[in-house]
Each structure stands twice: as C-alpha cells, then as structure tokens.
Design goal:
Number of domains: 3
Helix content: 10-25%
Oligomer: single chain
Strand order of the largest sheet: 1-6-10-9-8-7-2-3-4-5
Strand content: 35-45%
Number of helices: 7
Largest sheet: 10 strands, antiparallel
Distance between the termini: 48 Å
Shape: elongated
Number of strands: 27
Structural class: alpha+beta
C-alpha cells in the first residue's frame, strides 16, 4: 500500500469513527412538535435506583460503582441488562398525547404492563406506567405523570416487566483477570493446572504455557453464563468439572459443574448459589496441555531477539543483532538468520506419560529478547525419535522431535550428540 492509499485509509477510518460516535451518542435537542407531555430527562450516571413493578416487584440500586438487585432478594445485577434499562430510561423524555384515548385497557394500561419509579442523585423521584407497544412505529403507550395516555419513543414494556431472576448477574465468575495467578480445572481427562503472571505461565507436569492461550482461558471463564438460578436445589450428584481460580491476594473462586439437566448443565457458583449454565459457555473446560502449552521448544522471536548463544561442554556459538544483520565475533554471520528460523520452528511434542529427567545437557540454547532471557537445555535422545529438554527457569522436561534439531549438527563436530 503506497503513501497516498495509507493517507486515504486513515481519513476514511477517522470519518467512520466520527460517524459512529454521532450515531451512538446523538439525541435530538428538540422534541417532536406533537410531544407535549413531559416525562423526564435522565442521564444514566444520574440514576441511583429503579423500582419495576410487573408480575413481581424488582428493586435495583446503585451501590458504589455496581448495580445490585435489592428486592425480592439481594444479588449483583447483570451489567448488560442494566445498560439496556438505563438506555431505555434515557430514551423516554416526552410523550405524544393519544387523541381520543378512552378505555386504558386498549393500551395495556389497565392494569399497566409495568410501572416504574426512578430516583436520581439530586433527590428526584420520577414515575411512569408502561403499556403495550404502539400499533404504529417504534413507540410504546404510557401514562404520563399528569395521567394523560401518551406514546413515547421505544418499545420498553418487555424490559420493564422482566422477573427478578432476569436482572441478576448471570456470570459464574467475577474475578479481575489481571489478578489471576493460577487456574485449576479438574475434569474427566485429568487435571489442568496452569500458574504464573504476565508472559510467564507454566503448566504443571509439563513446561511453559502460551500466554495468549492462558488469556483466552481466563476470559473464557468470565464468559460462562447461567441460564437460570435454582431454588432449594439438591447437591450435584455427578461432578464433571471442578474449576478453581486463584487470585493474587489468596482468594479462590470455585465452581462445581455437574451433568445435563432441563434447561442447561447443573452448576454451583462460587457464592454457593445453584444454577444451570448455558452449555455452549462451558466448552472451554475440556482443554488440555496441547491447547494451553507453548508449542515452541525455544523462546525466540526472529524479528526481536537481540542475542543468541548455543553452547555445549566444549564449545559456544554466539551471535548478536546489529541492525538488520547478525554478527559473530564482530563479523557478519551468514548462518544466523537460518538458525533463528530453525529455533522458531522447533516444536514441543506432548504426551500423557511423564518425560524422564536428565543430568547434563547436550547443548544449551540461550536467547535474549528485551529484558527477558531464556535458557533451554537439551538432553539425550529418547527412543531415537526425540530429545529430552527442559526450561532452566522451571517446569518439567519435554520432548523435541530429533529432526527439529538437525541444524545444530551444522555448527560443527563440537556439537555432535
């Protein structure tokens, strides 16, 4: 892409961003000429409490930065549903009187489908009765504070009349992903145990874990959702998974997963609540070492690694980056790019059986990338097909296919196994 194309793409991207903001934030400054009944003027940040009366009465209250269900029981509120509710309240500001409105039953207002009471930071209290969706357009019938039957923008009655369980937080886990230090999943195929922080994660019984895969696992756990909550449920009879998330401060959030039941998969939440979970959100629990393990035998980034050393008991081969070229003992190295590429391509072979340890390595491979130094020690042949290896920083031994290390023979006789 040439410079003119890049500039055009940048301008188009900027225009798209501006349009997106205008569409999502736009609100007309003037009401329609026939909207003469004031309802309220609310901003989401000003609302502190909402009471909804439909089939049951639900009280929602802002506590600090969190919304909570306060009645008919107390629980965390679902963030997405609260955003939808506050957006609905914001959309209702003026009403258009319905000419010739007679029997309120015709408009779903006798009794109303839902009634609302909204409280704001300034001490304001606002009330509204919501009826059926209007017969024409994106509108809803409502009874304004004056008692007049009006139409208001939006079709919100279905939102306002939801039962209490719909407003509960349907997440299973609520931890801060930045504070996670260990995840243990005990399942039918064994125990997956990964621990660490930042870019350094380790699989118990194996070696390094892929930081991107660990992030996907952690955020996937936060995406597990409850389909419905259970009352007076019996304990889980047949456990399929036990998930434990360990946080930096020592807190542990645990959830036990059972088997398929009506409406979903039986699950117990960390808070001790019983529920059924949406099955699709649990699929990540079947991951194993090959899903989370770092597939690379060596930690090398061909475009970023600054220094490389391969050493045996008798010899050392070392290169350092100098701009776009590699130098060995101050002289450009014709082999360095190829060797870095081979190191990057070398893969770990995973198997269920434990990999034996070894004492003295055949060779050690050290890489320097930014402020990170990694040394991998390569040991003897196993069954003629793999070399046993280990990361000097920790973890268990692992296997590298012998063909992935063929480039080392090219370094000279001093590096022969």
């Amino acid at each position: 892409m040439d410079a003119s194309q890049s500039k055009l793409m940048a301008v188009l991207a900027a225009l798209l961003l501006v349009l997106t903001v205008l569409v999502t934030q736009w609100r007309p400054d003037e009401r329609p000429s026939d909207a003469t009944e004031p309802i309220w003027s609310l901003e989401a940040d000003d609302v502190t409490a909402v009471t909804l009366r439909g089939d049951e009465t639900v009280s929602l209250e802002r506590v600090g930065e969190e919304w909570r269900v306060m009645a008919p029981y107390e629980a965390s509120a679902d963030e997405q549903r609260m955003r939808e509710l506050l957006d609905s309240l914001r959309e209702i500001d003026w009403g258009t009187p319905v000419e010739g409105a007679g029997d309120a039953t015709e408009f779903g207002l006798a009794p109303p489908r839902a009634s609302l009471e909204v409280r704001t930071r300034g001490g304001g209290v606002y009330r509204l009765e919501a009826g059926d969706d209007a017969r024409v357009g994106y509108q809803m019938y409502a009874r304004a504070p004056s008692g007049t039957i009006v139409t208001v923008r939006g079709t919100h009655a279905a939102v306002f009349s939801q039962p209490a369980r719909a407003w509960r937080d349907h997440r299973v886990f609520r931890f801060d992903p930045a504070l996670v230090r260990r995840v243990v999943i005990d399942g039918p195929e064994g125990v997956l145990d990964v621990s660490g922080k930042g870019t350094e994660w380790w699989l118990k019984g194996f070696t390094r874990a892929d930081p991107a895969a660990v992030d996907a696992l952690v955020y996937g756990l936060l995406d597990i959702r409850v389909a419905d909550f259970l009352v007076d449920a019996e304990p889980i009879e047949e456990r399929t998974f036990l998930v434990s998330v360990h946080l930096e401060d020592g807190t542990v959030e645990r959830s036990e997963v059972g088997t398929q039941e009506a409406g979903g998969i039986r699950i117990d939440l960390p808070a001790g609540l019983a529920a059924v979970a949406i099955p699709q959100t649990l699929t990540l629990l079947v991951q194993g070492p090959t899903d989370l393990g770092d597939a690379h035998a060596f930690v090398v980034e061909p475009e970023r690694t600054e220094r490389l050393r391969i050493s045996s008991s008798e010899h050392s081969w070392e290169v350092a980056r100098n701009g776009d070229e590699w130098l060995r003992e101050g002289v450009p190295s014709a082999d360095a790019h190829g060797i870095l590429g081979s190191l990057d391509a070398a893969r770990i072979h995973y198997r269920r059986e434990p990999v034996p340890t070894f004492e003295e390595p055949w060779v050690s491979v050290e890489t320097w990338t930014g402020d990170r130094t990694v040394r991998v020690e390569v040991g003897p042949l196993l069954e003629g097909s793999w070399h046993v290896a280990r990361d000097a920083a920790g973890g268990q031994s692992f296997l590298i296919p012998v063909e992935d290390l063929g480039f080392i023979d090219g370094l000279g006789p001093a590096f022969s196994p």
